[in-house]
Amino acid sequence: MTLEQKLTTPQAFLTRKDLEALGLERRAIDAVLRACCVKLPGYARPLVRVADFEAWIAEHTYRGREEKRPAHENRVLIEVPRYRATAVRPT
User: Fold this and answer.
1) 49: buried, middle or exposed (CB in 10 Å: 19+, 13-18, 0-12)?
2) N or C, which end of the chain has less CB nearby within 10 Å?
3) Closest CA to 12 of 69, 52, 71
4) pTM for the full model?
5) Are 49 and 12 in contact (CB under 8 A)?
């Protein structure tokens, strides 16, 4: 089954190579596999269902000003004090 055929079948499985062929780099592939991985008994390689992958991409796609950009859960805001520049006169 080709990648094009898999993408038209919601219950088909995508492999790492399929995700790479879609243009995802290694870190993005790892993120997809962590989010919607299917593990089959007796099979060591991770798989992703096409429907789960498309739903995950749609959920995490930023669509401009029509919605707020989701904040990262682990992000910590650090306030940096502002310093006023003062002129130093030579003595």
Assistant:
1) middle
2) C
3) 52
4) 0.66
5) yes
The type of residue at 7 is L
Helix axes 26-36, 50-59, angle to 10 degrees: 110
Which string of DSSP letters, residue by residue, matches the chain?
--HHHHHT-TT-EE-HHHHHHTT--HHHHHHHHHHH-B--TT--S-BEEHHHHHHHHHHT---GGGSPPPPPTT----PPPP---------
- Flag residues of the chain having pLDDT under 50: none
In the block, which residue shows the tokens 């596999």? 33
**pLDDT tens-digit readout, 28-53:** 999 999 998 888 899 989 999 999 99
The length of the chain in residues reads 91
Cα 80 to Cα 82: distance, rounded to the nearest angstrom: 6
